[in-house]
Structure formats: structure tokens, C-alpha cells
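dude i think i finally got it to work??
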Amino acid sequence: GVKDPRACLFLPEWDSVLEERGHYLFVLRHWSSCIESLLHRHSRELAFSLADSIYPAHFAFWQNPTLAARMWLSYCKRILAFSRAHPSKTLLATQRALFNGQPLIATINTKFQFALDENAESPFRPDWLRDQASQQILATLPVRLVLELDSVWQSLLALAELKHDDESPIWVKESDENQKRLVLWKSSQSVLTKAEQIPDTLIKPVKFPQVSANDLITLLKIQENEDAVSQQFDEAVFKQENIDLDAYSAVFNWCQSTWPTITKVNNALAFWLQKHQQWSLAIKGWRWCLTLKTVHPYMYHQLAQCYKAINDSELTTYFANLAIEKNPNNPNFWVFKATLLREAGDVAGALVCFKKAAEMAPNKPGIIIPYCDLLEQEGDVEKAMALNNILLATNPDNNAVQNMAVRLAMKLYAKKGETLYLETKLASLSKLSKQQREEGLLLLLSKTGCLASETDLLSRILSHWSSVGLEVLQ
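look at this
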């Protein structure tokens, strides 16, 4: 099973590979509840992430109010076309039918001549079903688009072999409590007059400074010694300064001719090229470093990363193994090898490497998190939770550690996981003052695509905040 609607974009490709072995079950969901689910999830991330930053991917649904609807159309039109072209190998069932106990496995067995266990316990959680949608969604969509959505839905229902007696959407109004919050917010002149004072930085993409090769070489030339030159490269890495693509070679050649035997300078140069994804030059740089007097095991590791970036699996593996041979006590080397093995399908080998790394660095999130991720995938959730609990004790404010704790708790104890999620997000939001929260929210609203979209986002964020006991306006 694949819970990723993007797979629908490649159905002909899947079918060309699977040929007669391919049989397809599509679970259909009305466009209203699909949109509602997207808006609920992404507004929750926005509401609980003001302490960190605003992620454009989450905000896109309110900047472009028709985005979610057009996504649904993109996927469902392809399901419709594929099902019409291959009726014997496709089965359509609505979400509402499955949650109401219709015989899915028996229908699959009958249509595809399978022998699946019809007595298997259903994995569906009715209490987690989101089958309603806010009426506010309709206000954000053009009439013509709504008509197209309805037309595609009816065409899908006509092909569905499992469907409920009533597949009509369930629209709900704003609660009275949330209506009061909206009125309070919109009447708060003290907040609304702050619009011009808020820095416009949360949503704009970061623009890196641009310098010419000549400028950078001139700057390097005036440095007094190798330490100063190395520092210039290090600062360029951390500042993310970019130069014209053709000019990286000029800097590389200058450095090679001016400081050919100095490890420190060539090391900084290779790091700089690698940071800017100049893989071929970075490889030349690291290989040159290996010919110099002072050689460090991490140089082999960096070479392995560069070769991985250009998809040279043989040299990636060679240098990854060489790094471990030169220094078997570096946990990062073992994690990198574990990642390679996992990608190659050698899960057992990956687990061995992850275990070695974890024994060396049980308190480092970058070491333990990917190990927990693989353990979770392999079904060993309890072991993953035990490892992550050690991380939590030493890294209580680390977002990745917190998110992993929530994810694992959701799998083992759903209600406990949900509570932990809300507690974590409330702790993050509570670090902001009331004014900071209001200003962050106001900036979001100023970037929405229309009035209805602004109202929808405002309503959802205020509701999310209320759900954890945090009121903006008292």
C-alpha cells in the first residue's frame, strides 16, 4: 500500500513495469474532506511553528487558495483515466465505504482471484477519520472550479464498486466560540495598526550574496598567511556567498598555484567547493589533499559524499569503507555507511552499522535519529523509543528528537502520542510573547491570496492555539 497520491502521476509507468502482475486499488475521498485535511494539517504546522520559521510549503495553500483543489483534480483525473482504460485490473472504493465496514478484502479476492484472509482485523481507526469540511473552503473556490470538482467526483463514483449510500460532502459552520475569536481579532486595532512595523522576513526566500571570482581572489591575495586564507574560505562557506558558476575554476586554479602544498588551505578550498555543490572540483580538491603531508580520515569521508552526489556508487562505497578503515571510532562514518546499505536494500547490514554508531554516540541526534527511523520502519518501535528517550534526556529542546518521540508514541500509544505532540508544540509557542505571536500571525495574514483565504487561515490558527490552551486575545 502507498499512502502518497503523487504515485497517481505515474500510473502508466507503473503499469508498463508490472504488466499483468499489476492490480490497483484506489481509495477515493471527496474533494472537500481532502482539502479540509490538507488545510488542517498545514495550518497546524504554521500555528505551532511561529517560534521557528514559516515554511513556504505549508503556507502555499493560503497564498494560492485553489492549490489543494487543483492537486485533487490532478490526481483524481489520472485515476479516472487509468481506471477507464484498465477496468479489469482496477478497483475503486470510497473512504466512507471502507470506514463503514464494506467487504473490501472479499471484493479484492473476487475481482482479482486473490486468496487474502477475509477475517483479518481492519486497521482503520474510525475516530481518526476526518470526513467533514469547513464551509469557508467554498468561499475560497471559484464556482467553475467547484463544478469541475463535482463532475470528476461523480465520474469516479460511477466506477466505484464499493461506495456508501450517501457520499455527499458534510459541510460544517464555524463554531460560535471561534466566531467570537475572529470578531475579537478583527476588531483589535492595536494589532492591526502594527502592519508596517513588522519586518517582512518570515516568508521571503533567503537571497545569498553574490561576489565575482576576481573579488574573491583579490580578497584572498591580501591575506597574510595560510590561516587567514583558510578563514576566508570558511567564512564564505558559512555566509553562503555564491559566485558565477564558471568562476569556481578560477578560484580553484589560483589556490592550487599559490598554495599547492598547504593542507589547511586546500582543505578549506575543498570544503567550500563541496558546500557549493561543485562536485567535480571538490573531488579534485580532496584528492589533492590526500597527496599532501597531512592526511585525515575525514577526507575520505568527504570524497565519499561527493561521489554519492554524482551517483558513483562504486567510489562512494570505496571511500566510505576507507574512511572507516582509517578511523573506525568516528560514528558519522558508520552512519554514512549505514545509509548507503539501507539505500541498497541491505537492511541487516545497515542496522549493524547504525548500532556501532549509536554505541559510540548515544546522545547525538544526528547519529540516533536515522537509526530510530530504520528501526521504526522495520517494526522495532519499542527499541527505537528506548534510544530516543536517551536523546530526550540530553537534548530536550531538539525539534528532531521531539518529533521522533511524538511519532513513536503515536505508533505505540496513539492518545499518549497526540498529548505529547500538543505539549511539545505548546512549550515551543510559549517561548514567544503575546505580541510576537500576534505579529507573526498578522504577517501570515498579510500574505494570503484573498479575504476568504485570510479568514480561513486565521480561524484555523486561532482554533489550534485554543486547542492547547493558548488564547491570543484575552
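Strands lie at 24-28, 90-94, 133-134, 171-172.
im so relieved honestly
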